[in-house]
Design a protein that fits this description.
The chain is an alpha/beta fold. Helix content is 59%, strand content 8%. α12 (226-239) packs antiparallel against α13 (242-249) and α19 (387-403) runs antiparallel to α20.
Length: 478
């Protein structure tokens, strides 16, 4: 795999990881439902990570909400107080805009910052012992060949391993708070950034070399603890336990001499800067719903600390409104689904085709993958779309992934296409044969010859007995 192809493969993973970490409503009767004494149900509900912000002389109104960037599928419904304040807001604020349209730009930045120049590899920067440990852990975990891994810098490898572990445990970006917010907003709120993805990437890349290596070593040494830590994080978040969550997130490890530096760079310095950006936004007469990783909102030197001590804000914790159940929960989930229209889907297909025509294949792959995710969340199809629509967008990225040598992505893409065809009663044998061939090609390129032969044997009979194949289809076969 080439350095460029590997960087493109990793870009979406970085995007996922970066998005890890006065009265708002227009009338007193609405905001009163958010008070601590609101309802008996609120008193018994778990606390939520939601605060209201106000400051004399600032016309803006805002709520600050803690997110979890990756969550397991099938999470419970969102607390009523959260959806109520969210729906009332006119503007939506993220650490970095998670919209799919930004993925291509992020790819370019990842490629520029994450790989070593020609003639230089990871072997030149870490000990032989650590390199062997990295191979032992990361190659089975991520399925990347060694030639690709040794081109990557430690900061990116650390992110990738964390995200792959989370993915294997069922934690998904689509289930995270940011994607929930984008779906529920439905394109009807103005978006703002407190930092931006490029600034976050440059923060990772600017870490001292030894700090990057210390972080990589810690992740490798504690990889077996990751499932328990992730589940504990979700449990504490759902329970609304601020102090326990802060303790869980900010534990220092004696084995990592760079712990204090990492906390300073990734939390405290950023908290101070994000607080200043929030204060700047509040100069506008708007209703803001501000979403940041919950780690920025707990413990000492949180964003709230800087807002109160440096900027003079009054901050009040909002009482929970209780989680909907039954039909109310179903209605809430329906309201939070992606609201992409058929016309917008057609525009997306045209935009992907434009990237293909311009030979911007990496961008096309990213747009197709992210666009398909917007139509389907796991096994659930977004209302108004069928598997045919899902496949029509997803397939536009499968072969381009092969063209740029991104075989892990190609294999995943064709597997998802095949799964969709299996759900479609009208899918033909030819429909199913092509993704099978794509899966086999990807397996062969990744050195998985036994799996490739097994998969390929399922597709060859169709191609051998169907002489009507086009020239392009025959070329692909061989």
């Amino acid at each position: 795999m080439s350095r460029t192809a590997c960087a493109r493969t990793c870009a979406s993973l970085v995007t996922i990881a970066l998005l890890t970490s006065s009265q708002l409503l227009g009338c007193a009767s609405s905001s009163s439902t958010l008070k601590p004494e609101a309802t008996a149900q609120a008193k018994s509900a778990a606390p939520i990570f939601l605060w209201t912000l106000s400051k004399d002389g600032k016309p803006g109104r805002a709520h600050l909400y803690g997110s979890v960037h990756l969550k397991p599928s099938g999470q419970e419904s969102v607390d009523r107080a959260v959806t109520q304040t969210f729906d009332a807001a006119t503007d939506l604020v993220f650490e970095a805009d998670p919209s799919p349209e930004n993925a291509a730009a992020i790819q370019q930045t990842v490629q520029a910052l994450s790989t070593y120049p020609a003639g230089e590899t990871l072997r030149d920067h870490i000990s032989p012992e650590l390199y062997e440990q990295l191979k032992e852990v990361s190659i089975p975990l991520m399925g990347f060949p060694e030639a690709a891994l040794e081109r990557l810098k430690p900061w990116l490898l650390s992110i990738m391993m964390e995200v792959y572990v989370a993915a294997k445990l069922g934690f998904k970006q689509e289930s995270g708070t940011e994607q929930w917010a984008l779906r529920r907003a439905g394109g009807k709120k103005t978006l703002h950034e407190l930092e931006g993805a490029e600034a976050q990437l440059r923060l990772f890349a600017s870490l001292p070399k030894e700090a990057q290596i210390d972080q990589l070593r810690e992740i490798l040494d504690t990889i077996e603890e990751a499932p328990g830590k992730l589940q504990k994080l979700i449990d504490l978040y759902e329970a609304g336990d601020e102090s326990a969550l802060a303790e869980h997130l900010f534990q220092t490890r004696e084995e990592n001499p760079s712990s204090e530096l990492l906390f300073e760079r990734f939390f405290f310095e950023r908290n101070q800067k994000m607080a200043a950006k929030i204060d700047e936004l509040m100069s506008q007469d708007k209703d803001y719903f501000i979403i940041v990783g919950t780690g920025h909102l707990v413990g000492e030197r949180s964003i709230q600390d800087y807002l109160t001590k440096e900027h003079g804000y009054a901050i009040e914790k909002i009482a929970p409104g209780g989680r909907p159940t039954g039909e109310e929960a179903d209605a809430q989930r329906q309201a939070s689904k992606n609201l992409r229209t058929s016309a917008e889907a057609a525009e997306l297909r045209a935009a992907i085709q434009g990237r293909l025509d311009g030979q911007a294949y990496g961008e096309a792959v990213t747009m197709a993958t992210v666009g398909a995710n917007q139509l389907r969340n796991g096994t659930e199809v977004i209302e108004g779309f069928r598997d045919e629509d899902y496949v029509s967008i997803l397939k536009m990225g499968c072969e381009p992934a092969e063209w740029i040598g991104n075989w892990p992505q190609a294999g995943r893409c064709w597997t998802r296409v095949l799964d969709a065809y299996r759900r479609m009663p009208d899918a033909t044998e030819k429909d199913r044969a092509f993704p099978i061939l794509g899966i086999a090609l990807a397996a062969a390129q990744l050195g998985q010859s036994e799996q490739s032969d097994e998969v390929l044997a399922r597709a060859i009979p169709f191609f051998q007995t169907n002489p009507e194949l086009t020239r392009a289809e025959r070329a692909r076969l061989f």
